[in-house]
Amino acid sequence: MQNNTTGESYSMPTSNELYDEASKLKNAGDLAGAVAKLEELLKVEPDHVLAHSALGVHLQKLGKLDDAIRHATRVTELEPNDPFSFTQLSVICQRCGKIPEAEAAMAQAHVLQGRPH
Question: What's the predicted TM-score (pTM) here?
Fold first, then answer.
């Protein structure tokens, strides 16, 4: 691609570059900026698991509880055999006051780990 004003070439950032930028923003204390960068990433790659996972955590910290749960749930849809996905969903649901949902997610994590719930 070319920049029309300067004639210089540029390319769209990759998913990994956007994720790295979001991580830098988070580490600098700019959670809102990190969320915006992760949402930009999802426009490029809608099923980016790490972006959904990070958004679940960041949005919960920002008090956007329904969005946090939505992203954490999306991780379990993308990684249905990963016990950690359900553990993270459980923690986010618990922090959002959704105790029955938290317990159900933890039970699913235990099933995937082969442990009794």
Answer: 0.86
33 in Cβ contact with 55 (< 8 Å):
no
The amino acid sitting at 39 is E
Amino acid occupying residue 98: K
Element (H, E) at 56: helix 49-61
What distance in Å separates the CA atoms of residue 108 and residue 16, rounded to the nearest whole number?
A: 30
Residue 7 DSSP class:
-
Give one word for 97, left, alpha or beta, with left for phi > 0 and alpha for psi -120 to 50: left
Q: Which domains does the chain have, with CATH numbers?
A: 15-112 (1.25.40.10)
Grade residue 11 by pLDDT with cuts at 50, 70 and 90: confident
CA–CA separation, 4 and 34 (whole Å): 29
Residue 96 carries which DSSP code? Answer: T
Mean pLDDT of the 83-88 span: 97
